[in-house]
Amino acid sequence: MKILRVLLIILILSGCEKHESKKFANKKEVTDSDIYEIVNLVVKDADNGLKKEGIKRELYKYLLDRDYYGEVFNRADSTVFTKSDTVFSKEDLKFIAQQIKKRKKFKFKQEYIREKVIISADTIQRMLEKKLTISNYDFYKAFEIRFGNTWYYTIGLPVFSLDKKTAFIKLDGFGSGHSMIYKKINGKWKLHCIISGWIA
After folding, report:
1. CA atoms of 122 and 135, how far apart (whole Å)
2. How far is C-alpha 42 from the chain's CA centre?
3. Whether the Cβ atoms of residue 108 and residue 119 lie closer than 8 Å to each other
């Protein structure tokens, strides 16, 4: 009887350990929900920034489903990103590398994007490539005819620290873009800093 009781306790404890390790693994894993939470916030922050500048009309109606260069996280991103060594630890960088590897073919889905209409990056790429074969082709005019007098955001894959309280995300618009660090404070994402930007 004692042996049975001991075996039962061992089974219960090992079951708890497996449950705890699985729970910890799931807690560490970046989910689609984590990604869309911050993407929707960054888009909203960008739109609010335009409103503060007095721009009332919707300049950006669309969001590309991925970066049209075909990389969720390119070499230029990683150069900027690794400079922010005070934000991310070595463990964070390993975790981020795993995220990038796992989501190489990641595309944004319309049902999870709240305030923008998704456009296929392949569509934009094909329109841009027409400039190579048609001498008088005007991409901007063609875009306006097809999509209206508005533009699109391009957002890179957001990547997260191991505790999922710090995120790196890149947002590009018409003629400008930013690479940013967001931090989760009291359960809410806040812009921590802009670590690089470009203007055409």
Report:
1. 21
2. 9
3. no
Angle (nearest 5°) at CA 13 between 12 and 17: 120
Containing structural domain, residue 54: 31-199
Q: CB of 77 within 8 A of CB of 166?
A: no
Does 16 reside within a domain?
Answer: no
- Condensed to tens digits (0 to 9), the pLDDT of residues 59-111 reads 899 999 987 655 556 556 666 556 555 688 889 989 998 998 898 889 999 99
Q: Which of 14-28, 72-86, 112-126 has the lowest mean pLDDT?
A: 14-28
Tell whether 6 is covered by a domain.
Answer: no
Q: Tell me: the pLDDT tens digits for 24-52?
A: 344 579 999 999 999 999 999 999 988 88
Q: Flag whether 37 is in a domain.
A: yes
Indicate the pTM of the whole model: 0.78
Question: How many independent structural domains does the chain possess?
Answer: 1
Q: How close are the terminal C-alpha atoms of the chain, in Å?
A: 79
Q: CB–CB of 61/118 below 8 Å?
A: no
Beta carbons within 8 Å of 113's beta carbon, 6+ residues apart: 36, 39, 40, 43, 63
SS3 154: strand
In a domain, 10, yes or no: no
